[in-house]
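User: Can you predict the 3D structure for this chain?
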Amino acid sequence: MESVFNTPVLLLLFNRPKHTQIVLDRLRLIRPAVLYVHCDGPRMNRLDDEKEVRAVRECLTSIDWPCEVKTLFRKENAGLREGVFGAINWFFAEEEKGIILEDDCVPDISFFQYCAVLLDYYEKEEMVMHIGGSNLGEHLTKNSEESYIFSKFTFVWGWASWRRAWKKMSLSLDGFETFVSKDFIKDLCDDGMAQAYMLEKFRATKHRENNSWAYAWSYSILAAKGLTVVPCHNLVQNTGIGTSDATHTVNHDPKARLKASALAFPLKHPTSLERIKGLDTKLFYAAQKNRIRLFLWYLLHKTGLR
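Assistant: Here is the predicted structure, written as structure tokens:
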């Protein structure tokens, strides 16, 4: 690693000082020269938020390496959807490319170099829109001769992208009716139940029935006919799933807490932008949804009982 890491990093924070400090300690190992920090404001109905948010912001005093720290501290709570969207807009208004980390995403050190190399390697390749750091289906890919594969799924537990890609992000899922009518969802994978599940997630996101920015980003990549990168080894561990202080992922899923491991360098690049046939379906079931539970969900929706 460089003595100073020159790829800009955006850190997304809220009200978890312990998680925040763990990620800052990991960042200390690579010493980013430029660090953007977004911290959402306390919620109106949570008396403990103000104290916790203040503690999160105080964690930044532990930054003891040469670093330009830029902050966006909100006085009021913007929420996950609007808050993260606004933070990434702020980041890419200033930077052409960079890495995005949330407070509960703890990467292996190799994640940073992996992102830096691929941000340069695919900078001019319009089809490549997202460099993911996590891979909960690493058992499917860890024996690959290449360092990463291409996918249509968007894994956001530690990722990187470019301003030119983020310009195509639509938080309101513009063009959704055309997307549906032209069956663009079929580009995602070759499994009808997975297609139906993701299409329902997109519909719910468009109608603000959930608070997700990530589904909007996934939709935007699909609508733009883009590709994502998935490492053949899981490079980021999510330490917030199922914990008592989680806001949106309170259900415990051991699979989702897969430990991070190191990726070897130099990276071995695929010889083309082609996806491996059938792999996206396998990744979906490894990372997104249990096949039996999805089958029951699919039956309920097909019969109109839900």
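The first helix runs from residue 17 to 28. DSSP finds eleven helices and ten strands in the chain.
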